[in-house]
Design brief:
- By secondary structure, this protein is mainly alpha-helical.
- The chain has a domain of about 120 residues.
- It is about 50% helix and about 10% strand.
- The protein has seven helices and six strands, in the order E-E-E-E-H-H-H-E-E-H-H-H-H.
- The strands form three sheets. Strands 1-2 form a two-stranded antiparallel ribbon. Strands 3-4 form a two-stranded antiparallel ribbon.
- Strand 5 and strand 6 form a beta hairpin.
- Helix 1 packs parallel to helix 3 and helix 5 crosses helix 7.
- It is elongated.
- It starts with a strand and ends in a 20-residue tail after the last helix.
Amino acid sequence: MRLDNSAFESVEEFKYLGTTLTNQNSIAEEINSRLSSGNGCYHSVQNLLSSRLLSKNLKIKIYRTIILPVVLYGCETWSFTLREERNLRLFENMVLRRIFKPRRDEVTGEWRRLHKEELNDLYSSPNIVWVIKSRGMRWAGHVARMGEERGVYRVLVGKLEGRRPLGRPRRRWVDNSRKISRRWDVGMWTGLDWPRIETGDGRL
């Protein structure tokens, strides 16, 4: 593809500012890339997370300040499915099990890994999915307050020409934002001129 005097190669995916972009506009590849980077970061500090010399609170701080930012880079614009949500929780539970260590079973006396319910009780901070959704809501409010001269706002309210493919429409970022807002009973759009965006079949 040529634009003015510049030529651009057509590719299926590429990195832009650290984010993986695909020709299918799929966020799954980006989430997998973030989890892979986070897994590498986790393995680089797992000796610290297993150390008996460090308190659990300090280990949690290591997770939240070193590992978590690597995974959540650019998460404000994610529109993920239940499968991707599960993969994110699995990653966090893996790290938390390293921090809180196995527990001895009172009946059998054998060591076992902690269940996810036990991890939720021990980890007092919001889980990774909640953090992603809260950051997305904060970004949604920021976009809603933008004017029409801003590119991000125009991308949000813009409508592509042509007909969409057959089948169920892919869930959009704005759909997730509205769903979270209703579930959390957040009046984030009160007093804001939030755009009315139509789907391909004319529904809002």
